[in-house]
């Protein structure tokens, strides 16, 4: 087993046709994880991807490698891939599978990463979410808020049990209980309460409810959160099968 086998793997998509770069504070937080920087270059429909690849591959590769070089050190596992694609959503989903990334970063600018919000609806995918949070904040000063927003008239008892178990798991992983807050709310509009709570936090960690990142970006609760918050988001994928082996291959022309 490699030394990185127990690390969460995070895919970081970067629009290589612009000067877009992940916020360095987010990259610093991700250092305990295995990071895959995916530089994607948008290809207009009816334009052969190979044409843009020939024209821009060297500069795009240099751009992504420069970002990677600022993150790499002896304790950071980081890989890069460059793709030319007309469809970002499909490509992100496929690269996450190819590189065995259970987490995808939706990057936005931050002033700091001191408070992390983790909205929880059920215990589905919860273990993967807590593993990621525990690894990322272990050596940082960040605190985490576990938030359960129940639907109106829903029994909040189940939510409190889930939050109690999540707190215990983070503590078992070595996180000081003073760095963990839990909040249980009841609301007719859970999304609105999560968005409101995000204002007082620097980063959200949310989980998929179905094994397709594309569906989550387009709709459902994670998609709505992405639309309504200006905070960066780590999406913890719900894989439909076991871990897939890393292919480490560049995307073929689409």
Automatic annotation (TrEMBL):
InterPro entries noted in UniProt: UspA (IPR006016)
Pfam families: Usp (PF00582)
UspA domain sequence ranges: 114-237
UniProt cross-references to Gene3D superfamilies, sorted A to Z: 3.40.50.12370
Superkingdom field: Archaea
Protein name: UspA domain protein
């Amino acid at each position: 087993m490699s030394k990185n086998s127990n690390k969460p793997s995070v895919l970081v998509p970067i629009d290589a046709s612009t000067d877009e770069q992940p916020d360095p504070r987010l990259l610093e937080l991700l250092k305990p994880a295995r990071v895959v920087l995916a530089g994607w270059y948008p290809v207009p429909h009816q334009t052969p991807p190979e044409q843009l690849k020939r024209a821009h591959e060297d500069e795009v590769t240099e751009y992504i490698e420069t970002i990677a070089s600022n993150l790499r050190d002896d304790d950071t596992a980081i890989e890069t891939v460059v793709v030319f694609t007309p469809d970002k959503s499909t490509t992100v989903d496929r690269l996450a599978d190819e590189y065995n990334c259970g987490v995808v970063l939706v990057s936005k600018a931050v002033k700091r990463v001191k408070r992390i919000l983790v909205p929880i609806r059920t215990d589905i995918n919860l273990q993967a979410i807590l593993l990621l949070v525990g690894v990322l904040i272990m050596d940082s000063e960040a605190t985490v808020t576990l938030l359960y927003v129940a639907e109106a008239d829903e029994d909040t008892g189940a939510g409190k049990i889930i939050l109690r178990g999540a707190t215990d798991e983070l503590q078992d992983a070595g996180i000081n209980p003073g760095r963990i807050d839990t909040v249980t709310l009841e609301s007719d509009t859970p999304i609105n309460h999560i968005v409101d709570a995000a204002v007082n936090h620097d980063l959200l960690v949310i989980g998929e409810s179905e094994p397709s990142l594309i569906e989550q970006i387009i709709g459902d609760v994670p998609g709505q959160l992405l639309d309504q918050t200006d905070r960066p988001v780590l999406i913890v994928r719900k894989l439909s099968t076991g871990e897939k082996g890393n292919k480490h291959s560049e995307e073929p022309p689409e």
